[in-house]
Amino acid sequence: MDSAILNDLLELVNNAIPGNRLFLGRTTENTFTIIHTIDKEQTGIELHNNQTVDLNETYCQQIFSNQQKPVIINDALENSLTKELAVTSEQNIRSYVGGVPVFYKDGDMYGTLCAINPNKDNFSYQTVELLKKFSRLFSYVIELERQATIDKLTNTYNRNYLFDHFYGWGGKYGILMAIDLDGFKQVNDTYGHSVGGDQVLLESTNRIKHIIRKGDALIRLGGDEFILILPHADQQEIRGIAERILASLGNWSEYTLPITLSASLGIVQYTDEALTTLLNVADQALYQAKEKGKSNYVVVNED
């Protein structure tokens, strides 16, 4: 979501519960990322937009131990899970309320709404109820933006989303993978777009979604070309994911139509490179994979 819009929404929350550092965060299996944060009253607690930390070093681990329900911590120095965390003493955090979910219309979670304060006993269940009301407003606005950034056929992200948001959720390092379906034109020519091509694209994206991790992003650039962003992934795990994708997209023996299809992958590691540069490099690797034959991948920037 656009940073200015997030800022405006968090300022509305601040007007209702002033004096706190507020933030919208997102968890993966092992990390927590601050999507956007504000501190209008200067609490002295330092957080930064797009900051990513180990989940075990955050208060958000409490959310998981509490079955992903909203959590109130009245005194972080007395709570068994937070008193030993470095962030408690380093940032002088005493009270916390968080884990209030912000959902998309289809039930997927966008993130969680949270507040922290340097004073203990600062939050109550009335605070949680207020945050729940604001979370519904966040959900409405986020869903409007999502409709403009989603590929309607495959329900994956589109090119606009990739270019608008990559630097926000791509993380400081990770893997960018270009995916191209080999044999797709023949499927279209044989069965037509609606019966053949569209259904094959939908099936292909569903197969990829079942393989990738929570927090990864699949983008359809157009036609049968896709980009997969895997934040914080390294080469050891990416090879396993790539091989599983190739195996899944190369086996259509039980599909409803008799088709022959496979995939080629171009993979590049990223740190602080420009997105256009990464796309060009991944595209070159993709064509190198095609030259090797069906169901192949090429990794650039290998150690």
From TrEMBL:
One biological process term in Gene Ontology: cell adhesion involved in single-species biofilm formation
Record InterPro entries: Diguanylate_Cyclase, GAF, GAF-like_dom_sf, GGDEF_dom, Nucleotide_cyclase, Rev_trsase/Diguanyl_cyclase
Limits of the GGDEF domain: 172-302
GO CC, any one term: plasma membrane
Signal peptide: none
PANTHER family: DIGUANYLATE CYCLASE DGCM-RELATED (PTHR45138:SF9), REGULATORY COMPONENTS OF SENSORY TRANSDUCTION SYSTEM (PTHR45138)
Organism: Gracilibacillus boraciitolerans JCM 21714
GO MF, one annotated term: diguanylate cyclase activity
The protein, known as: Sensory box/GGDEF family protein
